[in-house]
Request: fold
Amino acid sequence: MEEEGLKKSFDFFGLPLETSLEEVERAFRKLRTLYSEESLATYSLLEDSDREEKLDLLHYAYDRILQFHQHTAIGGIPPKRGLEPYHNETRIFCIDADYQKKPGLFLQQLRKAWALSLQDVAAHTKVSVYILQSIEEQRLDVLPVHVYLRGFLREFAKMVNVPDTDALIECFLALYKNDEET
Amino acid sequence: MIISAPEEKNTAHPNIWAVAGGKGGVGKSVLTTAIAMTMASQGHRCIMIDADLGGANLHTFLGMSPPKKTISDLFTDPGKNLQDILLTTPFVNLSLISGARAMLNIANLKYLQKEKLIRQVFSLEADYIFIDLGAGSSFNVLDFFIAAHYGLVVITPTPTSIENAYHFLRAAYFRKLRQVIRELKVEALVDSAFGEKEQNRIRSPRELMNELRFRDREASELIEHAMMTFSPGLIVNQVQRKEDNNLGQEIALACKDFLGINITVAGDVRFDDEVLISLKSRQPVLTMFPKSPFIQDVRQIVKKFGMLAEI
Reply:
């Protein structure tokens, strides 16, 4: 069953099972552009519902492959299920990333300090692994629009218990806005 | 009613190419002229047919004055055939059949007239025939398009052109499908698939094929096999911006994915001011600017489909 789902995910990209993550990512970006609302190539071809369905399937397939690659990297241990929120636990971490300049890296270091994988965060927040990873890497060009991004950042920050969630979100969004303007 | 290409298409008969696009002003005629002239200059005997019935002007692209003999003559004098109205052009190996000029009703050919015309096209003496079709998705345009051995669809990187091209492709696909269905005598099956349209909402060829496969696997395979010959080439014309370089490939992917139609990308043609300059001088681009980016790109396309035609 698992295997079949994985194969389907690779099929979705028209790629064989052993394709490298880099190549899958390239295919993913290409398709995401193709099925985006701004796409010239699919203008008038798709209705909004087709588009959304396609993009959902695309993210699902990509997440599935990401998970697969990360499993194999740590020796095939499946991600933890049914995580409890960490909020009632107090711990002190030393995070060296500057949350004003590198809020993404700050989130990543905090996540790792809690020993959470991206899948753990994704399972809990319902934000896709791809988005979470893009937030951590501050790949501003691939992130969704402002309103969605704010929500995703809040979920992520809450999950890893950022001391001042609002400040971090504002810093991240300021970077995002700068990037848009340039 | 649809007329199909004769079976023995790769023997001594001409290779027939139809150029369409859905939208007007995308460069169908200028490209048809440049492609035909390039092929002619390579020693192939070529005929251009101006099938823009009602708005024929292909002679202008060749620097010729309005011809006396046109397709209109075929309808006023039933004794005449296509061979009689063949015009010599100033270029070696290239002849022209001019379209009807401003005759009301001629854009709406009757079935028998159309059948006769298409049959005559197939019996012309030439290596290659290029049919320049008018804009739109009328039955005339569709029937010439699917009767040809190879169809080319010309678009520009604009939403309006792409919208019309998708409309044209869908329409041409379903027109061809009707023909196949009639030949295979499976009308009832297809009608039943369409009959429950409200529940199923069949919007694309792909959805229809899925439905047919579900109803009658054997028949659907026959249909699918016959429809494989519907594989138009795509030319993206007037490409100016770098981000439009992938447009052809993207459209081909989306067509396969959503419509279930296989498209080959014939090539991109760069936007080129020299095309307009030569048009205003009423000279073909090939003779006026033989080294222009436009002609370079056309040569690439000719090279590509020159190989295709040999298959």
